[in-house]
Amino acid sequence: MKDRITELDLKEAPFLNKERIAEDVGNSLILAPHPDDESLGCGGLIAMLRSSGKNVIVIYITSGSASHLNSSLYPPQKLAKLREKEATNACLELGVLQENIHFLGFQDGQLIKLDSVKIIETVDNIVCITANKSLKSIFFPWRRDPHPDHIVTNTIGKLVTKRYNNELIQLEYPIWLWKNGKCDDWPFQSEINPVRLNISDYYKIKKRAIEKHKSQLGKIINDDPNGFVLTDDLLKPFDGNYEYFFTENKRNQKALEKDYFDKIYHNSNDPWNFKNSTYEIEKYKNSISALNKTDFKKGLEIGCSIGVQTNLLAKICNSLIAVDISEKAICEAKKICNENTNIEFKVTNILRDFPSGTFDLITLCEVGYYFEKDSLLELYQKIDSALVKYGRFLVVHWIGFVPDYPLSGNDVHNKLKKFMIEKENYKMLANQRTEYYRLEVWVKTH
Question: Where are the bilayer-spanning segments (predicted)?
Fold first, then answer.
């Protein structure tokens, strides 16, 4: 499986940003082939989104009526009603509004028999249900999840995405891949990007939601020994602090421009929670420490945002130029840094108007992935020209999944490493990698 994503790869996949899940994922549609798939595959995500105030719509394609075909106490029609009730209770446990729970009522195990006309009618129905819900993301089973109902639901999900002009973030969740997947069922490395979500704060809620599916846990129907039961072994992949998703690599190839940031800052003065985020505070502390120097003559901070890190850099620089493309961000930064007299703020596009002069410290933190690859390399060239001998270059980036950015954090650092090797006049002074970010300090040797 050298060319395939493996279970080990999933365990080391980049994270979805749980602190920004509401902004990154937004209002979401969950397509579930059967009752219980929503809780197993997405329960923590759903609970997290709901706690962040985002709408989640759950649509069940079937009602799971074929799980106990030999039960006389629960024939298919009665079982369908039971499973719909259990699914509703599970969704309510996760925080989904009653009005956002829908059952399409197709026959369990028979989706493969739907013709193209019925598929399109189903897509039309889903689009009608989700109209005016301001959807940003859609979740449905992995395209080769080894169950025909899951594969057909994936097809339906992709058609729904097309009806939204492919503007929805599309994430696929594995269910049966874990236990029943063969080599050919797993994704090719070139096919998708795996991501994971830390749901430890919502694990108990997810577990309670799963427990609502009592008929699948063998707690209700006892007259069909051959009926389907979610055993402890089958539940094992879903009993933990992480949920896993696959997303196609369809990044926006254009660099993000001023309008993008104007919109971000229009909605919030501190859109990334720089002031209070544990992630940011820890990262700033590590960044200053990694520089291993406190007497820089002249520093340049590229992408200062609202100035939280700027304050810290000002303490180790005699003078500091802090630039950002957003005028509003610079206004906030001036307020936060009003006690520092050694900072010069500039509203500028760094590629078009790189500050003149030379610097013995340049920082590029949480900015590089806003550029496309050619403009990023152009920026590296400008930084190299402006950095004096023995000057230090600090680079820090979030390495989790962010759908809007042209590059990932790993892309930024990997391209930088290649650039530095080709220049042959840099030495890596610090190299840190946490679950959430990469931090590097390079020193110019000659």
Answer: none
pLDDT digits (tens, 9 = 90+) for 335-349: 999 999 999 999 999
| Residue range 257-261: mean pLDDT, rounded | 90
Does an H or E element contain 297, and which? strand 296-302
Calculate the CA 435 to chain-centre distance.
Answer: 14
Q: Strands 426-433, 359-365: parallel, antiparallel or unpaired by DSSP?
A: unpaired
CA-based nearest residue to 130, from 157, 151, 110: 157
Say what the pTM is.
0.84
Q: Hey, CA dihedral for 250, 254, 255, 259, is it positive or negative?
A: negative
The larger pLDDT score, comparing residue 158 to residue 272, is at 158
Report the alpha-carbon distance of residue 309 to residue 288 in Å, rounded.
Answer: 9
CATH of domain 7-247: 3.40.50.10320
Residues paired with residue 359 on neighbouring β-strands, in sequence order: 387
The candidate with the shortest Cα–Cα distance to 368, out of 415, 429, 317, is 415
Beta bridge partner(s), residue 286: none
Q: How far apart, in whole angstroms, are the C-alpha atoms of residue 245 and residue 171?
A: 6
Facing residues of 298 across strands? 319
The answer to whether 376 and 383 are in contact (CB under 8 A) is no
Domain ranges of the chain: 7-247, 258-444
Comparing CA positions, the residue from 20, 30, 96 lying closest to residue 61 is 30
What percentage of the chain carries pLDDT values higher than 90?
A: 84
- Taking phi over 0 as left and psi of -120 to 50 as alpha, with beta for the rest, 119 belongs to alpha
Tell me the two tokens of residue 363.
């920082």
| CATH topology match: 7-247 vs 258-444 | yes
Please check the confidence at residue 4 and state whether its pLDDT lies above 60.
Answer: yes
Q: Which tokens hold the place of 368?
A: 């590089």
- Please tell me the chain's helix, strand, coil percentages from 3-state DSSP, rounded to the nearest 5: 40, 20, 35
Answer whether 45's CB lies under 8 Å from 38's CB: no
What pLDDT does residue 19 have?
85
73 pLDDT band, cuts 50/70/90, is very high
Mean pLDDT of 107-113: 94
